[in-house]
């Protein structure tokens, strides 16, 4: 059991291989770029009529 043993984790690290003792890390999903994301259309809200100012 050491650097030359293919069945041990250390042996797999030295040999650069993977297996049950040394599984590969799961890759995380990549973030989408600005070009790939669809932008939702802005909703246009009708502006309320301006209230007349009270005269003094």
Automatic annotation (TrEMBL):
InterPro entries cross-referenced by the UniProt entry: Ribosomal_bTHX (IPR031414), Ribosomal_bTHX/bTHXc/bTHXm (IPR030826)
GO cellular component annotations of the record: ribonucleoprotein complex; ribosome
Highest rank taxon of the organism: Bacteria
Keywords: Ribonucleoprotein, Ribosomal protein
Bias (Basic and acidic residues): 36-56
Pfam families xrefs: Thx
Region spans: Disordered: 1-56
Family: Belongs to the bacterial ribosomal protein bTHX family.
Protein name: 30S ribosomal protein THX
Organism: Chryseobacterium salivictor
């Amino acid at each position: 059991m050491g650097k030359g043993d293919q069945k041990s984790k250390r042996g797999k690290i030295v040999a650069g291989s993977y297996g049950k003792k040394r599984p590969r890390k799961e890759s995380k999903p990549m973030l989408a770029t600005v070009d790939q994301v669809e932008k939702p259309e802005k909703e246009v809200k009708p502006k309320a009529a301006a209230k007349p100012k009270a005269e003094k």
